Amino acid sequence: MRQAVINSCECAESISRRSFLKTSAILTFAALPDLSFGAEVGNGRLLVILLRGGMDGLFAMPPVGDPSLKGRRLHLMPDGLLTLDGTFALHPSLTNVHEIYQKGEALLVHGVSYPYTGRSHFEGQDIMETGILPGYSSPTGWLGRALDVTGYQALAMSLPLPLILRGKAQAESRYPSWISRPPAGVYEQLGELWLADVHMASVGRQLAAGTTSPAGMEMALGIGQEADLASLAQTAGSRLRAADGPRVAVLDHVGFDTHSGQPGQHSQKLRDVDQAIGAFRLAIGDAWKETLVVTVTEFGRTVAENGSWGTDHGWGTCVFVLGGALRKGGVVADWPGLKKKDLFEGRDLKATIDARSLYAAMVSTTLGIDPERVRRDVLDSPQDDRFEPFLG
Fold this sequence. Notes:
single chain; 392 residues; alpha/beta; Alkaline Phosphatase, subunit A; nine-stranded mixed β-sheet; 15% strand
């Protein structure tokens, strides 16, 4: 069945898997407006949520209209699915995503991934952040290259700077420290000294306002405490809302590599993401109308469940794009079908949409970069006209 839908090294892998499943969520800011830069710059905001481990698109957004689904997933079909268009539904954990969809502010894309089929977390995550194949062939990330084009100054509150945000321009990284704060007034004095320097003036203003102070960074990163994803998303929303604040934030969330016990584990991870989206939407306030939130994952998961009520590394998945910057909402898919003959290598959902085309359109919309320049300097991918009604 093929249906087009457009409407309103194992040991090393195991070691890595154990380590990143325990890692706390991380929030990184980048793109401080440099008012002296004369390039094309939009007023949009962008929150990218990295879902490491391989988010199961068939679990998050089940193709309920495909008769082959239920037979392949006897234990992975939850009750209470949220209705979309009759062909697809949403997992019941995604209540905020569903509400945003009903308001016409969600673009839900299925059968999408990077054109990478190797199923390695290491290589897949490198490609999801650089947007370039083969893996390990680029020192820069697709968001970093976009910031290079806009001329925004990058201030990343993470150590090291995430690959997705690395560009040719030198970025400044800040990280929480045990060193005590400077005496009151020091930031204000520095701000006055930097007023004459067009490159430092905006940074000085934020230092004086306390938005990049060590305490503020500590709150943003959750260092020394168990910071949940929703709290970090709330912080991201409040920072991106400011007129002179950052324009881009990256939330890094792990734990989607559910080879066993997926009904409980994957459901909780989806709930984490959904609550984070809800908290961010509330915190960013009126700036939501200029904002996009997007999910990014390295690959999907197998169509059939394994013997441990889990799934293994696959290919095609789904991507959520949400926000007031969309022209309209809807579902986009070029559905390949779930019969075994229709699967990639007889096991994976085929990716019929190149994720890079979606991310390129999204970057153009939020950061105000001409689409041709995005393809030339940010993400070299074919244009997909299906996204024009939503992100054009």
